[in-house]
Amino acid sequence: MIMSCSTSGGQGSKNEKQGNLKWWQLSLVGVGCTIGTGYFLGSSIGITITGPSIVFSFLLAAIGTYAVFNLLAKMTAKDPQEGSFCYYAGKAFGRWARFSCGWNYWWSTTLIMGSQLIALSILSQFWFPNVPLWVFAGGYAILSILVVLMGTKSFDKVEDILAVIKTAAIIMFILLGAAALLGWIPGGPDQKTGFPNTRDELFPEGFSGFWASLIYAFYAFGGIEVIGLMAIRLKNKEDAPKSGTIMLLLLTVIYVLSLGLAVTMVSVDAIDPNESPFVTALADYKLAFFPHVFNAAIIIAGFSTLTAALFGVTTLLVTIAKDGDAPSIFAKKLKNFKELPLPSLGLGAIGLMASVITALLLPDKTYEYITTAAGILLLYNWTFIILSSFRILKETKMFAKIVSIVGLILILAAISGTLVEESIRPGLFISLLLTAIIAGVTFIMSRKWKKS
To answer: Are the C-beta atoms of 330 and 102 separated by less than 8 Å?
Structure first.
């Protein structure tokens, strides 16, 4: 689930807002919000790029993610704001940083919507392989827009249920995978693989493949921003760092266990970028129900993520507009449409339709391109979080500073790694183009702000 990033200036009344969430509840919400089709399907691309060493990519990504969330949680505990990292960027560097951070997050979330949309379409082709990708993409896009237009008040409760579904799907795979390795389930591939124990087996594509895979590992952790965005609802704001630590530990254990089992059970050559590695790993075992149940669970959960992202970009654009960082028309809500901000929703819908058109024109590479670009834009915001903390958290201890610098290095490694892999390089160029546009608009707006 993608939460909206309010960029409001953080008035005192918002600081004093008393929440009712307990720290462990926020941890569980964070786990459910973070796990998405980027992990279920994106990990397949990571495996094909680097092989079994994808497990180490996820461990490094966990360290980088810890550095980011730890700083965000500390800033939240010190000065809780609904604007979260966008507010802290503005506090540290000025309005230009808040403006660019907010619009960067809007674009990254829009690309994440596109990534989810294409992932859902690819997963649906598991049952209907002859249906073009763009047909599924168009259908899911329209359905998502209709759900938002309905303005369902119980959507949060539905999201909680769907978050449980996708978490349960991974746990189901871990249990079945362990049972299969122990010989409790008949069948299996003709050639047993086992976990690789030599350098060539671990890194079949060499260092460059491992380097390029980092972006997909980081992308799977995308969503930790929920700690900052929802920490305002904690009963005790000081519990934000603890919530994030538990959340990250749970995610790392789930990710590493499931991926470790997947690369142990099946040859890397058998992994298909258009199929979840967990479905592939159990394909040769006599579990006729598993591929269908697992695929359905991912689609249901993925659709919830897509719709939540559409809610998120819609709300975000309204908030940006209220702050004067977007045209005022996007802040308008129409009374005849359940107080929905239709102009803001319309722009989000245009983003969805752009993904449908891309699926029509580039059906074979759409997912890699959009996912890579979305992941990079997300990491740009994570970089903002670290840099902002250097100015705001002046009493940070030396060890924490070292961890922060390590996290920054890992983030830069993940972004630069997309240069060495030709198949995902266009995603980097897309992110650079969008960043250049945001930077150009920010420069123009900065001059207007100075005049006024």
So the answer is: no
pLDDT one-digit tens code per residue, 67-97: 998 888 888 878 877 667 888 999 999 999 9
HEC profile of the chain:
CCCCCCCCCCCHHHHCCCCCECHHHHHHHHHHHHCCHHHHCHHHHHHHHHHHHHHHHHHHHHHHHHHHHHHHHHHHHHCCCCCHHHHHHHHHHCHHHHHHHHHHHHHHHHHHHHHHHHHHHHHHCCCCCCCCHHHHHHHHHHHHHHHHHHCCCCHHHHHHHHHHHHHHHHHHHHHHHHHHHCCCCCECCCCCCCCCCCHHHHCCCHHHHHHHHHHHHHHHCCCCHHHHHHHHHECCHHHHHHHHHHHHHHHHHHHHHHHHHHHHHCCHHHCCCCCCHHHHHCCCECCCCHHHHHHHHHHHHHHHHHHHHHHHHHHHHHHHHHCCCCCHHHHCCEHHHCCECHHHHHHHHHHHHHHHHHHHHCCCCHHHHHHHHHHHHHHHHHHHHHHHHHHHCCCCCHHHHHHHHHHHHHHHHHHHHCCCCCCCHHHHHHHHHHHHHHHHHHHHHHHHHHHC
Q: Are 325 and 111 in contact (CB under 8 A)?
A: no
CA distance 301 to 160: 10
Distance separating alpha carbons of residues 120 and 143, to the nearest angstrom = 12
Say if residues 302 and 144 touch (Cβ distance below 8 Å).
no
pTM of the model: 0.86
To 5 degrees, how large is the angle CA 129–CA 134–CA 138?
120
Give the residue from 335, 322, 386 showing the smallest Cα distance to 74.
386
Residue 76: which of 243, 248, 220, 223 has the closest Cα?
243
The residue written with tokens 């992932």 in the block is 119
Q: Which residues on neighbouring strands pair with residue 234, listed in sequence order?
A: 21
pLDDT tens figures, 181-204: 888 888 777 655 666 778 888 898
Nearest one of 75, 80, 72 to 16, comparing CA atoms = 80
Query: Which residues of the chain fall short of a pLDDT of 50?
Result: 1-16
